[in-house]
Amino acid sequence: MATHTTANGPPLPADWEGYWTDYTLLKGRSLSPRTLAAYRDSFIYLGRFLAPEVPDLADLTRRQVAAYLDFTLASTSATTTGLRYRGLAAVINFLADPGEDDEPFIPKNPMKGLRPPKVEEQPVAVLTVDDGKALLKACKGPAFEARRDEALIRFLFDTGVRRGELVSMRTSPDHLNLHEGRALVSGKTGARWVAFGPATGAALYRYIRVRRSRADGSDALWIGHKGPLAGNGIYQVLARRFKDAGVEVGHRTHVFRHTFSHMWQSSGGGVAELVALNGWKGPAMAYRYGKSAAAERAHEAHRKLSPGELLDAKVRKRR
Questions:
Q1: CB 3.0 to 4.6 Å from 116: which of 85, 86, 100, 216, for a disulfide?
Q2: Residue 166: how many CB atoms within 10 A of its CB?
Q3: What SS3 state is found at 4?
Q4: What counts of helices (H) and strands (E) characterise the chain?
Q5: Which residues, 6+ apart, have CB-to-CB distance to 3 below 8 Å?
Q6: Once rounded to an integer, what is the mean pLDDT over residues 116-122?
Q7: 45, 72 in Cβ contact below 8 A?
């Protein structure tokens, strides 16, 4: 299969580069580089699937595209397949129908009649209070790693911050205020202050005391034997502690975020406040996080209201 590499990224089949140029110059310039790269990847993987007999894009058939999507679904996931589908559809739909000002670049649309796979969202489990206690028990002891891991787990349980935000934490007073229970974190939505309680503050203080002899000039809050902990270091710490505690869940850092959101809503906390606490831009994510425990919250609310019980309640006499 002949390929051609451009400054835009990895190689496409050589016969497809001209079509890609047509799309990027006439339509794609309004898109973000990240979106364009995702669209391009869809065609790169399609070309690899069809190799070595890769047709001109004008001769691509619906059966070939369907076979590629079926293969992607079987070998990856519905989410990835959906991304590949949308990348192909965005470009091919334009090439087949660029609008009134241009003639079609390809004679037919091989995407016509195809649909993306249905993505069924898998609920993320949340931690129970007993799970949290088991994790803390696995961290007991005066040693450096025990102090660090207890403080780290307490902070995650108390705030639900993202892993990148956890990595961003610093020890300087303008980033961490143990007296007021506030920490400045920074991540994909920018910098924000998060609040934590007295127990978490005490654990952070005990950790910082033993950390002083190992900091080596770094102001990164979370450090290991080789310096500041990066995202993978956080992952390894949690993987070890979850195993020691016998707590089995996926997405070990993010499960704290779902747990925090669930516990906040279970205690009657409002959506607007949860949006602010979690650093979201709107309420949509508030309904998604903790979704796996939404039924539990609904059942608890029903127990408090219990409309059926009202039928047997004594009726007050009207005066």
A1: 85
A2: 22
A3: strand
A4: 13, 7
A5: 11, 12, 13, 14, 47
A6: 72
A7: yes
Got the DSSP string for 265-291? HHTT--HHHHHHHHT-SSTHHHHHTTG
All residues at 6 or more sequence positions from 204 whose CB lies less than 8 Å from its CB, including other chains: 151, 154, 155, 176, 178, 196
Does this model's pTM top 0.70? My answer is: no
User: Which amino acid is it at 170?
Assistant: R
**Number of structural domains found in the chain:** 2
Rounded to whole angstroms, how far apart are CA atoms 311 and 319? 21
Residues 88 and 142 in one domain: no
Query: What is the rounded CA–CA span in Å between residue 117 and residue 153?
Result: 37
- The answer to the question of residue 114 being in a domain is no
CA distance to 259, 264, 310, per residue, from 136 (Å): 16, 21, 43
Q: Is residue 65 part of a domain?
A: yes
319 pLDDT higher than 60: no
Its domain, for residue 57, covers: 3-96
Q: Is the pLDDT of residue 179 over 90?
A: yes
Q: Return the pLDDT at 310.
A: 61
pLDDT given at position 280: 75
Tokens of 24: 């990027």
Q: How far is CA 65 from CA 86, 96, 111, 143, 203, in A?
A: 12, 15, 7, 58, 56
